[in-house]
């Protein structure tokens, strides 16, 4: 039986995706990412209207992503030392509570400080959550499990991105800051039900948060250091970023970084680019993009378990590029909406496909490091996109800036094509 047939057979099994630990992980992720997305486009507006201009708006996102990138490599160590509950709880607090400080004092340096604290919280939540979602997946359904986890990250953006912009316009910035803090605090009770340590096979199959029912001695979690799923490739070196030197992960990492570069541009500058246009166009555009992305992420996971995750990478990257290119026509509301559908579909698919592909190519013992590398690429791309675009538009304006971003994405079609050929060679 070849790898594709093995994937299909395993994916049609009856193992449950929604175990109790997985459900609690989704609840915690929804609360944490709700707090993240609610302010993602609001803080750039807050900085720009306070006199920071385009550069100041870009620096808010850039500062947050810088802190995220710096924090993420330490998360696997913190999980091993303190456990999922303490680490994820700390991440939720950092994502939400600092925003309340802006209700008391207002200054650009303080805004950047809040962004830095939120960035650390984001790094904790996404690295811990991604690795745990992969470990909790039943055999043969990891890509679908990651897709479901992706929905829990994407659904908050459906409401959070446009709602933050709308609420700040109607009520001012302070109520949005307080709502952000409240959302993350409401997610804290779910953290108490997360596994106290790394998930074991008993936990994945029985739904026991401590893995004691099906694995009283905790011996099945490693499975000999290998994943249960077909399609697992070569091992990963040790070290905090050992996965980064696995050559089979380079192309998915580059593809993700380019896509999130464009996403950083979009969420930071689209509301500013559409100022003076039709009323609420930015809110509706963000809502459309945010609604399409999680559906595409879940759909890509379903496809990946049955046909291989890399098989859709090329059209997904092309959709992101075309969606970005369409924003050259900012004066056309129809073109903006079409672009957001294309961008959302492509970006959601790229997130799942690159993550699942990377997990397929390492043993289970490398899951934590893959989570770090994937999230580093995601957040570094978003931060570089926000800062770089902010510097670029002072010279080119928004339409040309979106054109340059689209050209960068078209260049990434080359590694996407080669990665598709790489998978074909291994599965035949």
Task: Describe this entry's structure for a reader.
Residues 1-14, 199-245 and 424-428 have low confidence and may be disordered. Helix 3 runs antiparallel to helix 11 (250-273) and helix 13 (313-325) runs antiparallel to helix 14 (333-360). It contains 17 helices and no strands. The longest helix is centred in the N-terminal third of the chain and has 30 residues, at 42-71. The protein is globular, with a radius of gyration of 21 Å. The chain has helices spanning 3-11, 20-40, 42-71, 75-82, 84-101, 108-136, 142-171, 173-186, 188-191, 201-206, 250-273, 281-307, 313-325, 333-360, 367-396, 398-411, 413-427.
List the helices and strands and how they pair.
Elements: H1 3-11, H2 20-40, H3 42-71, H4 75-82, H5 84-101, H6 108-136, H7 142-171, H8 173-186, H9 188-191, H10 201-206, H11 250-273, H12 281-307, H13 313-325, H14 333-360, H15 367-396, H16 398-411, H17 413-427
Helix pairs in contact: 2-5, 2-6, 2-7, 2-8, 3-6, 3-11, 3-15, 4-5, 5-6, 5-8, 6-7, 6-15, 7-8, 7-12, 7-14, 11-13, 11-14, 11-15, 11-16, 11-17, 12-14, 13-14, 13-16, 13-17, 14-15, 15-16
Task: Give a brief outline of the structure.
This protein is an all-alpha fold. The chain has 17 helices and no strands.
């Amino acid at each position: 039986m070849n790898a594709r047939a093995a994937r299909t057979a395993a994916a049609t099994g009856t193992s449950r995706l929604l175990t109790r630990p997985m459900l609690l992980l989704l609840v915690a992720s929804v609360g944490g990412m709700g707090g993240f997305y609610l302010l993602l486009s609001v803080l750039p507006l807050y900085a720009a209207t306070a006199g920071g201009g385009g550069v100041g708006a870009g620096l808010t996102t850039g500062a947050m992503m810088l802190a995220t990138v710096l924090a993420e490599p330490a998360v696997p160590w913190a999980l091993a030392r303190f456990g999922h509950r303490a680490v994820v709880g700390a991440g939720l607090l950092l994502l939400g509570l600092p925003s309340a400080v802006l209700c008391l004092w207002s200054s650009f340096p303080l805004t950047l400080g809040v962004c830095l604290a939120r960035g650390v919280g984001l790094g904790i939540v996404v690295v811990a959550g991604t690795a745990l979602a992969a470990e909790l997946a039943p055999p043969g359904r990891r890509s679908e499990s990651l897709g479901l986890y992706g929905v829990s990250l994407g659904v908050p953006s459906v409401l959070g991105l446009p709602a933050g912009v709308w609420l700040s316009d109607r009520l001012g910035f302070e109520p949005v800051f307080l709502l952000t803090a409240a959302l993350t605090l409401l997610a804290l009770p779910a953290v108490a039900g997360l596994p106290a340590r790394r998930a074991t096979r008993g936990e994945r199959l029985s739904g026991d948060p401590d893995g004691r029912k099906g694995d009283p001695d905790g011996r099945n979690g490693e499975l000999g250091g290998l994943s249960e799923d077909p399609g697992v490739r070569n091992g990963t070196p040790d070290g905090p970023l050992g996965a980064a030197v696995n050559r089979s992960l380079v192309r998915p990492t580059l593809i993700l970084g380019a896509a999130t570069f464009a996403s950083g541009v979009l969420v930071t500058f689209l509301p500013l680019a559409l100022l003076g246009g039709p009323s609420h166009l930015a809110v509706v555009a963000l809502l459309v993009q945010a609604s399409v992305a999680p559906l595409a992420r879940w759909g890509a996971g379903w496809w990946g378990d049955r046909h291989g995750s890399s098989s859709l990478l090329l059209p997904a990257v092309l959709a992101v590029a075309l969606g970005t290119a369409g924003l050259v026509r900012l004066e056309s509301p129809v073109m903006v909406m079409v672009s957001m559908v294309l961008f959302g579909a492509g970006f959601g698919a790229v997130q799942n496909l690159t993550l699942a592909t990377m997990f397929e190519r390492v043993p289970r013992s490398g899951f934590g490091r893959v989570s770090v590398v994937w999230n580093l690429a995601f957040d570094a791309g978003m931060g570089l996109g926000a800062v770089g675009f902010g510097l670029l538009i002072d010279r080119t304006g928004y339409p040309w800036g979106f054109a340059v971003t689209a050209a960068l994405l078209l260049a990434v079609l080359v590694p996407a094509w080669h990665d598709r050929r790489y998978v074909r060679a291994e599965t035949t």
